[in-house]
Design brief:
single chain, alpha+beta, three-stranded antiparallel sheet, two-stranded antiparallel sheet, 10 helices, about 45% helix, about 10% strand, elongated
């Protein structure tokens, strides 16, 4: 049998054709899309390639810059080494020139501190043999002058002494120059055996006349003193007796007077009526006792220093002081020469010289009957008239050590009539008021 195929219609053909067109379009769209993606990928790859090329070029540029920097650093380092070598060479040449200059300018070393000295330094060669730097010279001059000593050259065996002008050059201190001139002048005066006035602020010196040292000296400042012990001159006692008499007087001043006056008031009605006079004088007695105590305290301090630092010349028994050096001593001057003072010139050894004994320790004091009023009798001193009341002295008699002749009775002494600091035997001395700054005169008490 023949199969009959119906002939397709135009509509179906058109539909089929449209289907194929749609497929082709879809295929073209897909191809176009892939082309776009390929172009995008190609562009991205091209951009990446461009970036890679740029980065490679930058890397090459950086490598060139690093190389150029390295080469520059090497050139700079080489230039620095060359400069350092040139500077080191110049410094070495300069140091050598300075060393040679120092050698040419060097004058020696300081005798005390061993510092090397050149012509440009401040130094002194006062004796012509021993160099001192400015600091050591000034220190030596200041220390010795302030201690009241002539300034010696520190060179071993050198007897040279600085002059005041040289001390001025070393210290630039006019006060020290004047003090050095005074020290030298005092040394010259001491060679003559001069003794300084003990008056406060007085700088007078006195040369004793030939004969015993127990001499009275009247200074222009008004001070009258003993040339042997330098205390206020004492007419009625030897120098060795003065400390004991002073101690006895101080004991009376502290307690004896009040005790004796109290006893007499209990025994004697007339004396009791005059007690007001004694009480009025107590304040002045206390003040005068304080002045005397101050003087004795200063004396004790001087004695303590001498006991600790001084000895006696075995020949003449003068007090000697060693301020350094070896044990070899010479009375009146340094053993190796210089620093000449008053002395006998005897040579001795410091360690074997007699020790100085304080005057306070040498005092021998009579038992103080005046401090025990019950033991004091109202003895009449025949031929002794009180200088104040002009009556014959009965009871304790007070004889002034510092006046030529001045004796008073216990009543006038207790009433304060005998307080004085000037010799009552000189013109005007009897009526002169006591010097409120001077220690009062001292009395020996006879009971």
């Amino acid at each position: 049998h023949l199969h009959h195929h119906p002939r397709p219609s135009m509509a179906s053909v058109a539909i089929e054709w449209l289907r194929e067109l749609r497929k082709e379009r879809e295929a073209l769209t897909d191809t176009l899309k892939r082309l776009q993606e390929f172009e995008a990928t190609s562009k991205r790859h091209a951009d990446e390639a461009e970036r890679s090329r740029t980065e490679i070029e930058n890397m090459h540029r950086l490598d060139r810059e690093r190389e150029e920097h390295r080469l520059h650093q090497e050139r700079m380092e080489e230039q620095r080494r060359q400069r350092e070598e040139e500077e080191a060479h110049a410094t070495a040449v300069l140091l050598e020139e300075m060393r040679l200059e120092e050698e040419r300018n060097k004058v020696g070393s300081c005798l005390l501190c061993s510092e090397e000295l050149t012509r440009h330094d401040r130094y002194f060669d006062f004796c012509g043999r021993h160099l001192l730097c400015g600091t050591c010279a000034a220190h030596a001059a200041t220390s010795c002058t302030n201690n009241g000593q002539v300034v010696p050259c520190p060179g071993e065996g050198c007897s040279y002494r600085f002059t005041p002008d040289q001390i001025g050059l070393a210290t630039n201190d006019p006060t020290l120059v004047r003090k050095a001139e005074e020290i030298i002048l005092n040394g010259v005066i001491a060679n003559l055996g001069a003794i300084a006035c003990p008056g406060r602020g007085c700088r007078q010196q006195y040369v004793p006349a030939s004969g015993p040292m127990y001499q009275r000296c009247q200074c222009s400042c008004g001070t009258t003193f003993c040339l042997q012990c330098r205390a206020t001159y004492h007419y009625n006692s030897a120098c060795d007796d003065l400390p004991g008499i002073t101690t006895t007087w101080m004991a009376w001043d502290r307690t004896g007077r009040d005790a004796f006056v109290t006893r007499r008031a209990a025994e004697d009605t007339q004396f009791r009526e005059r007690m007001q006079q004694f009480q009025n004088a107590q304040a002045e007695h206390a003040r005068q006792a304080q002045l005397l105590q101050t003087r004795l305290r200063e004396e004790a301090g001087d004695e303590a220093f001498k006991v600790s630092n001084c000895k006696l010349c075995p020949n003449c028994r003068r007090v000697v002081f060693k301020d350094g050096g070896c044990d070899l001593m010479k009375c009146g001057e340094d053993y190796h020469g210089g620093n000449v003072q008053n002395g006998c010139g005897h040579s001795f050894n410091w360690s074997t010289a007699p020790a100085y004994a304080a005057a306070v320790a040498r005092r021998t004091v009579t038992p103080l009957a005046v401090t025990n009023p019950e033991r004091v009798e109202m003895k009449t001193h025949r031929g002794s008239e009180c200088a104040e009341c002009h009556q014959e002295i009965k009871g304790p008699r007070f004889s002034c050590l510092n006046c030529v002749y001045y004796e008073v009775c216990y009543e006038c002494e207790a009433a304060g009539k005998a307080i004085h600091s000037r010799d009552r035997n000189i013109p005007g001395g009897q009526d002169a008021p006591p010097n409120r700054d001077a220690p009062p005169h001292i009395f020996r008490i006879d009971i």
